[in-house]
Amino acid sequence: MSFDAAISRRTVLGGAAVLAAAGLVAPRAGAQPAAIRLGTLTPLTGAGGSYGPSMRKAMEWVAQEINAAGGVLGHPIRLVSEDDQTNPEAAVRAARKLIDVDKVAAIMGTWASAVTTAVAPLCWESKTFLTTVSGSDTITQLPHQGYLIRTQPNTHLQIGKLAEFLLALKVKRVFTLAAQTPFAVPSHKRLEEILPRGGTEVAGIVVYDKDKTTFRSEIDQALRSKPDMIYLNGYTPDCTVLMKELFKAGYTGGKVAQGYAVNAKLLGSLPREVTDGTYTATPSPAVESAGYKRLARALGTDDLDPYSCQCHDHISLVALAIAHANGEATGTAVRDHVRKISQGNGQKIDSAVEGLKLLGHGKAINYEGASGPCDFTDAGDILDCKIRFDQAQQGKFKFVKMI
Amino acid sequence: MPGSLEQIAQLAVNGLVAGTVLAVPAIGFTAIYAVLRFPNFSVASHATIGAFAGYVVNTAWHWPAWAAVAAAFVVAGAAGVVNDRLVLRPLRPAGALTTAIGAVALTIVLENVVRFVFGNDLRGYDLPIRRDWQWGPLRIGPQQVENLVIAVVAMLAVFVFLAFTRTGKAMRAVADDTTLASLKGIDAERVARLTNFGGMGLAGVGGMLLGLDTSIDPLTGFRVILSVFAAAVVGGLGSIPGAVVGALTIGMAEELSLVSLAPAYRTAVGFVAILLVLTLRPRGLLGERAY
What we know:
The complex is a heterodimer. Chain A is of the alpha/beta class. Chain A has helices spanning 2-30, 52-68, 88-101, 113-125, 137-140, 155-169, 184-194, 216-224, 236-248, 264-269, 272-275, 290-299, 306-324, 331-342, 352-360; strands at 36-42, 77-83, 106-110, 129-132, 148-150, 173-179, 201-208, 229-233, 254-258, 279-283, 347-349, 365-367, 387-393, 396-402. Helices cover 46% and strands 19% of the residues of chain A. Chain B is an all-alpha fold. Chain B is globular, with a radius of gyration of 19 Å.
């Protein structure tokens, strides 16, 4: 028995060695102008699993377009894609691989705030640039030395606009049911800051463990304070359960949630009487822009999610920054040049290919992407973003207003 | 404070239901441990497989919930037998630890197979969502009551099978002493197959019961495996009544802790219970191999 095991183990190890050797030799054979290596780290599985694949596709499409037009100053882009599993621990392993093995200049597309918070230190310590769609305030407060930008409005900006929306609805008592995330408490504090000014009471908050299968007791706790509006600040799986259980508990008041949690898929999976009336808040991409329309055509949809739009802009910004740095494909070059192509008085452009051409002619550019103007503060936050409010009616989203 | 008394009563009801549903996969887990002597963590993915099997027959063929539960049992059980034969049985001679790690690897592979076939989206069963019954200050859902009934029926079936049938007795004999059982002419391999079928079938039923009240996705089983493990350990690994007692203890403790703890810390309560029980009664509440 043990003899057999030893043989097979040796065979396996031998095979692995051959494979590894092949892997080491292969890249040397083909690529002549050195490829620019960029990493994507999106949630292909886990709670963000319904967004990650499309985010990655958006970045792959931009890379293809750039490569088809001759690359970044002649260097093709090579994307290495990893799955963060919506899990900080898995994300750190994947980021380590991207940084140490693939030696990427930038990691793009981290989604969950907990993932970004875990990955960011690896990035700034290794001088790798990180672009993210996470919204938690704490992310840009990290000592990232400039190696981080985000295209998602932070909690302060987003919840400020949500509070404004709730005040316009004239609700009396708001209760928050929040998944345990880095933005749960900051969101609640921001509501407490604004709502009382307009006479709306903030009744309380329950922070729950999102991996539980039932939240009956949490809901009992929320309903004891008799709210007329419940803010569901979680992710899709837990919001699905919460909405079902609120219905079962006989709750008839209002519900409001983030658009990434209560999305078309959630509406499709629950009966109308459970979801109808729920408001959603979504940072809106620049739906009228040419960049948005091109990406929508490329991905074969007329309703792009904001994260795919933001990821489209991530890789465009990184490629343009590298071109502006005369082809220096490092995280530090991206850090030092990204604001020189994203804002200022240069010619407004909405595609990386167009921008690369103009940079080649020595022109100054100002990139405005599929997600919005892409202008960044020194801390890495975006300066402004529109928030779109919708309401579920008859199992479909109806546009309410833009703030 | 009548208000807080009502609150405690409601929490106890919630805990009872949560514990009963948890008991079903815990029985499967502990039965496999009793016969095969390793913690088979692939109970997680088999719970998911059962949940998805039930989902397919419920939404595509419009079978009612109870028939879908039966389908969940058969499909998850069959998958358990095949996976054990192909993956875990070859590992068993290397010891319990190796097999347990193999089972963790297996569960992650199977979970990804489910993800490959069904995608990552949440799915809900095609069942009407009904308002809860209000019973004085207490609130209980019709689906919860049905889950309770299905779980209790499944548990009774296991008890009857083990206590009164020839095969059930053979199973207990193998769990007690494999060598002695084989001297008596009991085919240990056959018993192992049956245990796997029954154990993983119960895991499948558990996965589906969890999904009936909520929704399912490829991580359905993985989310509860630690609680299932906790229930089995608290009750006494290898003891079937122990799994029931353990599951009720964990379910009740997690809910009742909400009287004084924020819900975010609830999961820790189950594991504090494990530490306490293992410190005070290392063999679990009912002890190992109690039937």
